[in-house]
What we know:
CATH class of the largest domain: Alpha Beta
Bound molecules: magnesium ion
Number of strands: 17
CATH topology of the largest domain: TIM Barrel
Strand content: 15-25%
Shape: globular
CATH architecture of the largest domain: Alpha-Beta Barrel
Radius of gyration: 20 Å
CATH superfamily of the largest domain: Enolase-like C-terminal domain
Amino acid sequence: MGDVLKIERLDALVFRAPIAEPRMNAFGAQTDRPAVLIRLVDTDGVEGWGEVFCNWPSVAAEHRARLAGTLFKAMVEGKNFDSPETMFRDLTAGTARMRLQSDERGPFDQTICGIDIAAWDLLARRRGQPLWKVLAGDDTANGAPDGLEIYASGLAPPSAARLADAARAKGFRNVKVKVGFDQNEDIACLRDLRRTHGTDFGLMADSNQAWTVAEAKDWISAADDLDLIFLEEPIAADAPFTDWKELSTASPIPLATGENLRGRAAFRGVVGLGGVRVIQPDVIKWGGLSLTRGIISEGRAAGAEIAPHYLAGGIGLLATAHLMAACAPEGLLEFDVSENPLRDAMTLPRPDLRAGRLHLPEAPGLGAGPDFDSLEPFRVTL
Ligand SMILES: [Mg+2]
């Protein structure tokens, strides 16, 4: 790429916001909303911002911020990198033995994701270009796509109907509901939503890896008249590709997975060998922008649809949106609508949502930065 990133400083910031109602998943609940932001500053004082996945367990945010603020800080401050990809490779290779020794794959990978996003943001700000344009690698590209199709997620019983009503009132045309609790209640909830909102309203379901192949088949046969856009993670993300193939062959509902996959081979396997129709990489969980670009391109070439996973604050959401604008503007972007002050207050300008689409800001880089006045009450001192 030829650019040189001269990193002077790395800061890791932790925020934690209380919520009124626990956020339910089939594997457990979230009782507050955490966020870890990464700030890179270069020798000219230009900043770049990134975000690190830290939803589970509840101590994850502080741990990842400490990894960033100690181990990784020492690997980037005072160093030059000729591109974000080079930085990603150096940080991954430089911690390979440590991650084996500690068995801390996830925390290391997720921290690198946040640093990688900050490096891309910094690069784009230096060039005076919006991040999507830099990711696309096309200086001749004109305007950003006219918004990205988004869907509301974070809906789960007992508040799913209320959240779906609120999402629709804000212009959302698609919602995803958490399932995997009780089959009858799962199906009743989706059936109520279909009845209330009609056949033009997009419905998806996410079981968070709750079932065996047999249990998933049973659930799918009970839901096959609901016209779901996709069913997410019906079985474990690391189930054999033959299990995915058996289920996808039997399922009239397209299957989706990706938030818990890591590595190009895993994405290739679920699509090529497993028959999965929708892939959902998460740029703050594995791969950052540097590797997810290739995952998306390869997935599209293999015929998969792209629906990036996202469940965190506003910085990573914008990074994901820029990646989609660059690589898969026809995709479907997850937008968590459950209570999260760190999403709503995190960035200035606020996310621009109109008629069920997210419109990217036009300023260089991510086009937005943290709103520290709003975030300060949630700041955690390490
Ligand atoms: Mg999910």
